[in-house]
Amino acid sequence: MSQADEFHNLDSGTGGILRELAPGLTTRIFAGEQAMLSVVTIAPNAEGKVHSHPEEQWGVLLEGSAVRIQGGEEIHVGKGDFWRTPGGVPHTMRAGPEGARVLDIFSPPRPEYRVAGSGFGTG
């Protein structure tokens, strides 16, 4: 494999493993050996279901506005804000009126996200 295959672009809208998380929420997933990136696009006012997983997750709001629902709290986030979600903490995201784009980083990689499909994978 060429090292060029290890390079990607956040704005290209191509590549990765495609997954529909919920109505209005789609992602492109890029998996490595020890970490996984997920570029999530959330339609205006769309919201995912509350879920949790054992992997640690970091998120960065790249565009738009949103409310991060985490551990029972609702926290408004804007472009450039980032957060950590420890494994096992219930969470989801609700986009603002202009929608949102989020970069999620998981460690270790989530096994269920290594294949295309739908849903968040765990409850």
Explain the overall architecture.
- The structure is a single chain.
- The protein is mainly β and 123 residues long.
- It has a single domain (25-116), classed as Sandwich (Jelly Rolls), CATH 2.60.120.10.
- Helices cover 0% and strands 52% of the residues.
- It is built from no helices and eight strands.
- The chain has strands at residues 17-22, 25-31, 36-42, 56-70, 73-78, 82-85, 91-107, 117-118.
- Strands 1, 2, 3, 4, 5, 6, 7 and 8 form an eight-stranded mixed β-sheet that branches.
- The chain is globular and about 45 Å long.
- The model has no long low-confidence stretch (mean pLDDT 95).
- Pfam families: Cupin_2.
- It comes from Teichococcus aestuarii.
- Residues 39-106 form the Cupin type-2 domain.
Nutshell version of this structure?
With 123 residues, the protein is an all-beta fold.
